[in-house]
Amino acid sequence: LTLTFTPISLSEEDASILSTEMALSGVEGQTYARCTEYAEQLNGGPCFLVYYSPAFLRNAARQEAETGLRMLADIYRQARSIWPFSSKSASVSVTIRIDQIKEHQPEHIMDGYLWGEGWLLVKRNEREAVIEHHSLYMLQEVVHSEYRVLAFWPPPTGEEGNEGMGLIRELEEVRAQVENRRASPASQSSDTTPPHQRAASVLPSSGYAERAARIKRATQSAKDLRLQA
Question: Where is the composition biased (Polar residues) (predicted)?
Fold first, then answer.
């Protein structure tokens, strides 16, 4: 029996996110034996149960373990932006359901960006969020809950061609707009808009049609390039 180990090189941020989030026990005052020296920093929550993550990583480990871990780190990252870390939530657990991606290879999941499709982490209630698949240029029409755009597309390498790079930049801008809108003081002030309407309008309407048209054009060009390859 020969075992082959493939080196994994995660970014420092992704490695830190995974090690920190997976060290939370979900029980106030309880720390895993190997984390006792960080007990004070880990005294908080909520703790995330990423349902089906073992199945997802088993599939990813066959060919793309590093990509699978990077995707898992982004799931934790976006979940934490919805549920900020607090010492008052040390005994709170939140379930993150990833049913829709658990059986797929990371490459297959990421290919969706070529068709203008993407993956969102959508908050269902105070104790649960799910990963859903949506058209990225129809978010305003189809998503009516608080959500985050998951960066399930390959990091730019310069090998995608002008159209492919353009599409990834568009996707990064969509994600940044969601983040900026969420973080802006105006969005956190005394807004009386019903929560479902506020979430649906997280992307400002100004320029939205133009952005949707650009994503569609870039999507078609990237798709054509992939089919020609």
Answer: 185-195
CA distance 179 to 77: 12
The structure tokens listed for 22 are 């997976």
In a domain, 75, yes or no: yes
Given a cut of 90, whether residue 86 has pLDDT beyond it is: yes
The torsion region of residue 94 among left (phi > 0), alpha (psi -120 to 50) and beta comes to beta
Q: Looking at the 3D structure of the chain, how many domains does it have?
A: 1
Alpha-carbon radius of gyration of the chain: 19
pTM of the model as a whole: 0.75
Provide the edge-to-edge strand list for the sheet that holds 47-51: 47-51, 93-97, 128-135, 117-125, 147-149
Return the SS3 of 124: strand
146 pLDDT tier (thresholds 50, 70, 90): confident
Range of 143's domain? 14-186+193-228
Q: Classify the C-alpha dihedral 6-10-16-20 as positive or negative.
A: negative
Is residue 44 predicted with pLDDT exceeding 50?
yes
Calculate the alpha carbon distances from 82 to 139, 145, 183 in Å. 18, 12, 11
